[in-house]
Amino acid sequence: MQNNFRIEASGLHKVYEEGPVKVHAVRGVDVKVPAGAFVLLMGPSGSGKTTLLSMLGCILKPTQGKVWIMGEPVPWEEHSLPFIRRRHIGFIFQHFNLFSALTSAENVEVALKLRGVHGRVAKQEARALLDAVGLAERWNFMPRDLSGGEKQRVAIARAFAGNPPILLADEPTGNLDSHSGRVVIELLKRAADQGNRSVVVVSHDMRIMEFADEVFFMEDGRLAPYQEAIHGQGTGRLRER
Ligand SMILES: Nc1ncnc2c1ncn2[C@@H]1O[C@H](COP(=O)(O)OP(=O)(O)OP(=O)(O)O)[C@@H](O)[C@H]1O
Ligand SMILES: [Mg+2]
Predict the structure, then answer these.
(1) Which CATH number do you get for residue 42?
(2) Any domain includes 176
(3) What is the pTM of this model?
(4) What secondary structure does DSSP assign to 65-86, as a single string?
(5) pLDDT tens digits, residue range 107-131?
(6) For ligand 1, mutation pick of 14, 47, 216 (most atoms within 8 Å of CB)
(7) 103: pLDDT strictly greater than 70
(8) How far apart are CA 9 and CA 77, in angstroms?
(9) Residues 92, 193, 198, 85: is their CA dihedral positive or negative?
(10) Is 156 part of a structural domain of the chain?
């Protein structure tokens, strides 16, 4: 074990070179997320938030730098990344990314099956996960028959499948009205506080700040604690590190 952090990144850079121009999207980011922490990542559009979250989530290979998940270095070999993601990381996206032809319960079951839970056990577990996000009575609904907030709660139930210690959410309230957004954030906050999960949320929503143990501000590919970047004041228990 390198450390006690659930997620650690050191000297992370990402340069996109697909197009005719190189884009240096992330420029030397260091970050540490302990167990039970609810971390908010803010910053203007194009500042590199999704790029950073994707590298922390082992979806996108850094151009330079290192990531440790659960204290283990990420090897960035194609065959090992799905295993790390399935075992340790649940993802929640702005656009929910539910299978439109599957019911709420089936959407959650798919994630359970990927983690080796099948048959009747998967069905029971899916229902329990939907119950935990307040959707016990919607298990048989198709995504088109759910509200935006309900769809996002199905996505959270799906991210909880297999009980991953890390949850990463990219603008999870971006498509929601303020009440539904609050319900979603409270679920994520509870996952950190009571479930001892490490939760990293990318959001433009200032209202999430009150829930966060630590707020980072990203600008032009670089990360600064929000208080330093904006106010110069320190809050939150993680500041004591
Ligand atoms: N696949 C890609 N190929 C080339 N450039 C990319 C790619 N993905 C992102 N970029 C560029 O990298 C920069 C950072 O993008 P990123 O999506 O990480 O920003 P963001 O902070 O999440 O923005 P938003 O708030 O709008 O979602 C942008 O300039 C973007 O155009
Ligand atoms: Mg983004």
Answers:
(1) 3.40.50.300
(2) yes
(3) 0.91
(4) EEEEETTEE----TTTHHHHHH
(5) 999 999 999 999 999 999 999 999 9
(6) 47
(7) yes
(8) 17
(9) negative
(10) no
Q: Cα(110)–Cα(55) distance, rounded to whole angstroms?
A: 24
Residue nearest to atom 16 of ligand 1 (CA): 48
Atom of ligand 1 nearest to the CA of 218: 21
The burial class, CB within 10 Å (0-12 / 13-18 / 19+), for 231 is exposed
What one-character-per-residue DSSP string does 209-228 give?
GGG-SEEEEEETTEEEEHII
Nearest listed ligand to the Cα of residue 41:
1
Residue 97's φ and ψ, nearest 5 degrees, are 55, 45
- For residue 216, list its beta bridge partners: 41, 225
Whether 114 is in a domain gets the answer: no
Task: Write out residues with Cβ below 6 Å of ligand 1.
Answer: 16, 18-19, 23, 25, 43, 45-51
* Two tokens, residue 100: 């439109």
pLDDT at 230: 57
Which residue bears the tokens 């030397």? 28
* Structural domain count of the chain: 1
Q: Which domain holds residue 60?
A: 7-97+165-240
Enumerate residues 6+ apart whose C-beta is below 8 A from 39.
Answer: 33, 198, 199, 200, 201, 212, 213, 214, 215, 216, 238
- Which of 51, 54, 218, 222 has the most ligand 1 atoms within 8 A of CB, as the residue to mutate? 51
pLDDT of residue 229: 59
In a domain, 52, yes or no: yes
Span from the CA of 42 to the centroid of ligand 1 (angstroms): 14
For 42, list phi and psi in degrees, rounded to 5: -115, 175
